[in-house]
Amino acid sequence: MTLPGSTLVRPTIADPIAAMGGGPLTEEGLRRHIHPLFSRVLRREEIYLANHSLGRPLDATADDLQLAMDLWYEQMDGAWAGWMDAIQRFRALQAALIGCARADAVVPRVSAGQGLRAALNALPQPRPTVVATRGEFDSIDHILKTYARQGRADIRWLEPDGRGLFSAEAAIAALRPGTDLLVLSMVYFATGQLVEGLPEIVAAARRAGSMVLLDCYHAAGAIPMTGPLAFDALAPDFAIGGNYKYTRGGPGAGWLAIHPRHLTPDPLPPLFTLDTGWFAKRGVFEFRRPDQPELAAGGDAWLEATPAVLTSFQALAGLELTLGLGVDRLRAYSLEQQSRLAHQLAARGVPVLDFEPHGAFLLVPSSDFQALCDRIRSRGVNVDARPSTAGPERSTERSGFVRVCPDILTTDAEISLAAARIAEAFESL
Ligand SMILES: Cc1ncc(COP(=O)(O)O)c(C=O)c1O
Asked: Cα(355) to centroid of ligand 1, in Å?
């Protein structure tokens, strides 16, 4: 990528991807063509299996940030053209990743939680009734509880089944008349469950007069959002996510997608949010101040005030890599790796929870999940742990999980070594 006026040109990511050729990903091809793009992070001496938590950055990510800074130093206010280009590129790549034909339907947000607030603050009801599952990530859970506490929403919680899972039938049954918004994840952060029947859930919500917000943080970049799972086809009202996991874009590069059916213009779209600012105005640099706010066309009406710039740069290389490799190929490779790791763990007597279908990480259940995580980490294998969202009253066996996620930088040899070290840590408990 080059930017006008910048002295730095970072090597393209498309070339090594093309050099690898088509067909399924192989360790040999990845090692030869893709691993060199990660020379800095691969210097770390550990087996990194926390890719579901914080993805490993490409060397190019630092180059892109340097480009953004060069623009500033060298062009001062002239930098805005290059900065805005990067934001538009971020929106286009993110839209492509989630299967959304309109790049403007995706707007940058610092976090997924900020995306949720923008959606809540667009609902026409002053105190909407929201149905949300107990499995939503803490940020989402906390924001919804805060809205309830402040009298800005009534929340009805959908409890998981005994295994900690959420079914389409249960979600549909929870859609009673008067539900304004259904909040659920495509892939659950604690269990990795990939929810089946999403098209049916969204269709049922629309029939019931409820909007849907889908948290795609553990899906975008890990699960192909194509065909019936493409954002456009699935057609939830909103989707939220971010880039610090599978797309290697670091914190701050979150996003909100608004379904194009809500983006009809003039004079004001039917749905618009209180989370706004002057970049959402029609004619941003015309500085008109009519008494009635006039919004930019399409998804630009969902922009906010002066935008964060560096976070878009930060996300570009990872998105380019993810799209270039193809989420379908990444998914197939991830499933193979997970299966190898699961077999090796099982062969060594380590329990692995098998929720099918699931996302990009495996679960090792433990009543002492934090201690197990610490012991695995002390053996040079970087993993993390989460308590079960099924609630403390559930069986101790499911009181928490160590989450384990290999990726395209993980070698077969590392998988075997990790299985041995996890087993050793498990036995030592
Ligand atoms: C499902 C899910 N949603 C959202 C987030 C992050 O939320 P936020 O960007 O609001 O911090 C995470 C982070 O782990 C997540 O797993």
From this structure: 21
| Residue whose token pair is 């939680």 | 113
Query: What residues are paired with 131 via a beta bridge?
Result: 156, 182
CA distance 183 to 166: 12
Q: How far apart are CA 35 and CA 10, in angstroms?
A: 16
Q: What is the rounded CA–CA span in Å between residue 390 and residue 399? A: 8
Query: pLDDT (tens digit, 9 = 90+) per residue, 216-266?
Result: 999 999 999 999 999 999 999 999 999 999 999 999 999 999 999 999 765
Amino acid identity, position 357: P
Contact (Cβ atoms closer than 8 angstroms) between residue 231 and residue 203: no
Read off the pTM. Answer: 0.96
From 300, 412, 348, select the one nearest 26 (Cα to Cα): 412
The number of the ligand 1 atom at minimal distance from the alpha carbon of 254 is 9
* Alpha helices per DSSP H over 164-228: 168-173, 198-207
Nearest to 242 by CA among 405, 54, 41, 38: 54
Q: How far is the CA of 32 from the centre of ligand 1 (A)?
A: 33
For residues 242 and 112, the answer to whether their CB atoms sit within 8 Å is yes
List, in order of start, the domains of the chain with CATH numbers: 81-321 (3.40.640.10), 327-427 (3.90.1150.10)
